[in-house]
């Protein structure tokens, strides 16, 4: 995961204005966390927006769930993955030296 100085959360990042805002922010070097409703939309948005985009799958109009908890859980999982990936990379470098 590339480190950036700025981050934004964009709702509706799978289409229209939300997608355009996500692309613009990512092009300016911002880390963008964009809400999408479907797994398919997540893959399409990530491919279109680029490497600084992280899709978060949830529906902001869904009153049955806790959107904040959903976002926190997805961000925690991504953070844990990136930490373990960094640790594995460091170990590989030690073994190669």
Quick structural gist:
The chain is an alpha/beta fold and 97 residues long. The chain has three helices and three strands, in the order E-H-E-H-E-H.
Describe the structure.
The chain is of the alpha/beta class. The chain has three helices and three strands; from the N terminus they run βαβαβα. The chain has helices at 16-27, 39-49, 67-96, and strands spanning 7-10, 31-36, 53-57. The protein has a three-stranded parallel beta sheet, sandwiched between helices. Strand 2 (31-36), helix 2 (39-49) and strand 3 form a beta-alpha-beta unit. The longest helix is centred in the C-terminal third of the chain and has 30 residues, at 67-96. The protein is globular and about 50 Å long.
- How many helices? 3
Structural class: alpha/beta
The radius of gyration over CA amounts to 15 Å
Q: Strand content of the residues, in percent?
A: 15-25%
What are the salient characteristics of this protein?
97 residues, alpha/beta
Note the topology.
Elements: E1 7-10, H1 16-27, E2 31-36, H2 39-49, E3 53-57, H3 67-96
Parallel strand pairs: 1-2, 2-3
